Here is the input.
Amino acid sequence: MEKTIDEAIQGSTLQTENKNINKRNLYIESYGCAMNFSDSEIVASILATEGFNTTQNLNDADLVLVNTCSIRDKAEQTIRKRLTEYNKVKKTRPHLKVGVLGCMAERIKDKLLDEEKIVDMVVGPDAYKDLPNLIKEVDSGRDAVNVILSKDETYGDVAPIRLNSNGVTAFVSITRGCDNMCTFCVVPFTRGRERSRDPHSILEEINELWQKGYKEITLLGQNVDSYLWYGGGLKKDFEKASEMQKATAITFSNLLEMAALAQPKMRIRFSTSNPQDMTLDVIKVMAKYNNICNHIHLPVQSGSNRILSEMNRLHTIEEYFKLIDDIREILPDCAISQDIISGFPTETEEDHKATLKTLDYVKYDFGYMYAYSERPGTMAGRKMKDDVPESVKKRRLSEIIALQREHCRYRTEKHLGKVQEVLIEGPSKKSDQQWMGRNSQSTVVVFPKEKYQIGDFVNVKINDCTSATLIGEAIGHSPNN
Ligand code: SAH
Ligand code: F3S
Here is the structure.
């Protein structure tokens, strides 16, 4: 789910219908995971009611909000550099205010406000509803901070304003926070405890998106399989719920089925699945409904049982393989993608080989691969020495990436000669004569535009491919239109 920083930098334009006279312009820039992009849409919505229009032009901005990512050191460095650039802009335009949102706000608030004095406002991921008050503070010349993490905030009652949208695909967040405590990961510290959003508000959002012409949604959470609604409250407090609450609780497979039934023509995707929480019910629901896409993002992180245990991933590699076998049996056409970390503390050559063996076993359709980056405050950061030399991490990473590239090609070639339903998302990056869309497995497909339109479901005959892209020709609308 993670995007590169280059891909991630983006401003957003939108003309809201708010006719407030005190209109101000908000320039919002998002980094990191899909959840941050989704959160920026919540922030735009909260501020629209305060008279803020979003703009894509920094020169028009009265307020810049940077929605930040702390997942790896490099992400933070890039954002800090960006913040110092804003600081320079502020010197020439003193009325411009700059706020930091997201994970860095939570993690290094004091540095941003005190030591480096580069921002006016610091707002953590659970405090966006406080933005109107915080902006008033800033307007009256004071720094404003709210980084309080919440037990129940899910923003279920905020209708996101879609930013930079293709009008076809949208994210719908279903959980916030994470209780898993993988030893390398900063997310539980920056986004707090796991809580699930009221299914009714999720279904309402899906129905509204359909009415507005959207054709595909991705249900978002750090660990979607752990979704659990029992009337509100933290996942960890479920044990204390009443018998009635327990009996009527909604799990992720229930929610997925509800979503598939609510809009039978809408494509449903979800991300991310944690192997230790993914159950067969979910895979069975996927098999039952045509509109649930055949793709599971199933991060493995490492193929070595010893490293998995050091990472506090609560499954063995054998259990992971069993899950893969079950998925292949129930959903033979399902794409599977991965996240992998190379060079976790104490990782040996043998552990690394076990990761390569895992790649060979699964032959993932695609993946996101990273060198380990020590995060202060995490269990690994506190207790383990970052002892794999950078050069070794990088070499192992490039071996993993090279093997994954072979598997991408292997999987992509399997689509050749088939007719597949593609949802058109927009023009292809390479040619404005071609459409770009995705098949159910989430592989990118390009084909000549002909009479088809953005948002159409089209049957495409796949004639050719590169390692990551399918090339085809449309043979007609699919019955889903
Ligand atoms: N469950 C989350 C995972 C968030 S982090 C989700 O929704 O995707 C995304 C990925 O970043 C992780 O799966 C992991 O592979 C990688 N990652 C997290 N912390 C890292 C670290 N300290 N160093 C390197 N990679 C890391
Ligand atoms: Fe991070 Fe593990 Fe949660 S990777 S987001 S602690 S599932």
About this structure: Residues 390-413 form the longest helix (24 residues).
